[in-house]
TrEMBL record:
It comes from Desmospora profundinema. The gene is nagB. Residues 10-226 form the Glucosamine/galactosamine-6-phosphate isomerase domain. Transmembrane segments: none annotated. This is Glucosamine-6-phosphate deaminase. CDD domains: GlcN6P_deaminase. Belongs to the glucosamine/galactosamine-6-phosphate isomerase family. NagB subfamily. Its EC number is 3.5.99.6. The active site is at D67 (proton acceptor), N136 (for ring-opening step), H138 (proton acceptor), E143 (for ring-opening step). InterPro entries: Glc/Gal-6P_isomerase, Glucosamine6P_isomerase, Glucosamine6P_isomerase_CS, NagB/RpiA_transferase-like. SUPFAM superfamilies: NagB/RpiA/CoA transferase-like. It catalyses: alpha-D-glucosamine 6-phosphate + H2O = beta-D-fructose 6-phosphate + NH4(+).
């Protein structure tokens, strides 16, 4: 895994946006794997601004998000469907039916996981996957202990993840207990991966990631086995390195 150190959050966003625009502006069909949460917000707002100012088109871009909560309607403000719609989808010209997130409201969640995995394969796989890192080292919602051979599946969220995501909900009790996530193997099939680390609350896990062996107890460590994985980390997130 390559490491790009950047000064601050602006530099992180600009680095990732340049990589995404390279692909999008090539005019070739591209499948992007997308993340939600705080880290990519500035990336999406810059892409929206670029499309407004420069007219960049997303007609040949298809997207697959990493995850969605179980039991939240796509219209719920805390859902990842809603997040993506507001942050990116409604502002640029993706093809109709070109944006995908797992459906966490369906009666048959196992079937939904199979369908999501099959849709990624049918689309030709993910060209460029964006990832944030959880304070416990998760990628997507693959919590510590998840098998590296996992495919899209239903997960029970770790308490540390529910705590970290409390800030997006009115009340701690409303944070869902389960989610659908791409599996570790699904993520590893991506042709290129960017792991973004922003802020001092990630310093401890980033230090562990860089110092420790690859292990299922630290899901993000699997990226050290990927031939085209890059971590882009701000100085604050690297502060735990001695
Ligand atoms: C979000 C996701 C998560 C987040 C991670 C970091 O779709 O899959 O793995 O990327 O929890 O979240 P932030 O960026 O809010 O610190």
């Amino acid at each position: 895994m390559r490491l790009i150190r950047v000064r601050d959050y602006d530099a992180l966003c600009e680095t990732v946006v340049a990589k995404i625009l390279d692909r999008v502006q090539s005019g070739s069909r591209v499948n992007l794997g997308l993340a939600t949460g705080s880290t990519p917000r500035g990336i999406y707002s810059r892409l929206v601004e670029d499309a407004r100012v420069n007219g960049t088109s997303y007609r040949r871009v298809h997207t697959f998000n990493l995850d969605e909560y179980v039991g939240l309607s796509p219209k719920a403000p805390e859902s990842y469907h809603h997040y993506m719609e507001e942050a990116l989808f409604r502002h640029v010209d993706f093809p109709r039916g070109g944006t995908h997130l797992p459906d966490g409201t369906t009666a048959n969640l196992e079937e939904e996981c199979r369908k999501y995995e099959a849709a990624i394969q049918a689309a030709g796989g993910i060209d460029l996957q964006l990832l944030g890192i959880g304070v416990n080292g998760h990628i997507g919602f693959n919590e510590p202990g998840t098998s590296f051979s996992s495919r899209t599946h239903v997960v029970t969220l770790a308490e540390s993840t529910r705590r970290a995501n409390r800030r997006f909900f009115d009340h701690p009790h409303n944070v869902p207990k389960r989610a659908i996530t791409m599996g570790v193997a699904t993520i590893m099939d991506s042709r290129e991966i960017f792991l973004m680390a922003s802020g001092s609350d990630k310093a401890e896990i980033v230090a562990r990631l860089l110092n420790e062996e690859v292990s299922e107890s630290l899901p993000a460590s699997v990226l050290k086995r990927h031939p085209q994985a890059t971590m882009i980390a701000e100085e604050t997130a690297l502060a735990g390195l001695s």
